[in-house]
Amino acid sequence: MAGGGFCKLPGGSVVVALYLPGPPGGAAAPGSRVRVLVHAANRARALTRLRNLGLRAVYLRGNTEPPTPDEITAVLHHPDGLVWRAAPDDDTESWHPIRSLLRGAPAA
Question: Which domain of life is it from (predicted)?
Fold first, then answer.
């Protein structure tokens, strides 16, 4: 997947940031890309956490877009350590728990 990166924290853990396509029927708009942040012990474990949620084709190639300090703070303060945002450049949108991305869109 293009558009991802990681940052190693002083304690030895890492924060991985990836751009992923929004899942069909999920909370994000169809065809949109979402920024996903994962806090884990290492990069492989972070990707495994995403794969275990059903996002099978998740790869981190290179470190072209590492997480910003604000993104690191957001994922560290979330109890699950997994958050997403549909408009990464929009600071007014808050981070959402990963469960809200993977479940179906609410009925109108």
Answer: Bacteria
